[in-house]
């Protein structure tokens, strides 16, 4: 039961309005960088690494996930067009 309690605590921490805002910002930045030809999601994360220096660890990792998935979506946009 302790595992479910810890999982629920992590989910509650990830779904705070501030962390959701960082996820949305990460998705937007990742999409803008991912649309560039030749720039993949991993390079988008590497390019936008300095953006997360002032954040705490949880917010930075959430923003990295948003950047990665936004970069994947941006790459599919250019390939479809």
Strand count, sense and closure of the main sheet? none
Distance between the termini: 49 Å
Content of β-strand: under 5%
Q: What is the helix fraction of residues, given as a range?
A: over 70%
Tell me the series of helices and strands, N- to C-terminal.
HHHH
Radius of gyration: 14 Å
Mean pLDDT across residues: 92
Plain-language structure description:
The chain is built from four helices and no strands. With 81 residues, it is mostly helical.
Please describe the structure with a list of short key phrases separated by commas or semicolons.
mainly alpha, elongated, 4 helices, 81 residues
List the helices and strands and how they pair.
Layout: H1 2-14, H2 17-34, H3 41-47, H4 57-80
Helix pairs in contact: 2-4, 3-4
Please outline what is shown here:
With 81 residues, the chain is mainly α. It is built from 4 helices and no strands.
